[in-house]
Request: fold
Amino acid sequence: AEPPWHVETSWPLFLGSFKQHACWTYHASDKDMSYTEAEAWCTQHFTHLVAIQNQEENKHLNEAFPANKNHYWIGIRKKNNEWVWTGTNKPLTEEAKNWARGEPNNRRTNEDCVEIYIKRARDAGKWNDEACSKRKAALCYTVVPCDQLDEPSHGTLECRHPVRDFSFNSSCHVRCSEGYAPTGLEPVTCTASGNWSAPIPVCEAVKCPVPQKPANGSLNCSHPVGHFAWNSSCNFACQEGFLLKGSDKLQCRAAGEWDGREPECEGNAPSPSPFLLTQSSLFFTWPPLCNMPKFTRDVVCSSGEV
Ligand SMILES: [Ca+2]
Reply:
């Protein structure tokens, strides 16, 4: 059933050295329960028992929620003789402490859990250590969830959700199918403000280097997936009189490499030519009747007569 109390607010949240603007929603149960039950109830319906960041938050909770005879459990308990936040297992810092006068007193020697006094005549908004078996309302929080991410084209989405699906601290990365690679390798994380730390990568077809047209030859490529990408294939041919040395077809592999070396077009040694230009405006001749000693500038021998 829907709990009766929902209060929306936002606080600057300190995560390590980062200050983020977190949007929290607080929720309280309408029934009293033990600490263990309260933790389970918050985890099931929301995120956790409240983790209080600062004195203003204590004050705000005291103003926002109605008095409850047995008060409210919050997310602090004693572990190995130290007060820790149950959501993070981090020790409570001195600045964050907000004990009521004379507390924590461990009066019954088993006061290992913490409650907050809401609208109490004395010490309103302050904390008290209590036996965990006592029954109190659960005071929970949630943070604004992040947008749910879709599976990428040509890949799958792999996510970890330490808190709830696509919410605070969820992290996702994409795994691409064969022939595709993600545009980023770092996982994206859902921040406390309900935004992803970065756009989710997409899967792009793996590219091969653009092949060179062989000298005295030609190249004809087809691209079923993308421009010189995975599965593109190129056919090589040589001009007449040249011989293809190497494979006449290359295919782009999933790793972004061609499956062979680019071929070359090999010609024979240049055949003697009737007009072989060796120097501007000087011509040798063929057949060799009109011979070297006889040639003159700008004269072309065609039949052996000069
Ligand atoms: Ca106490």
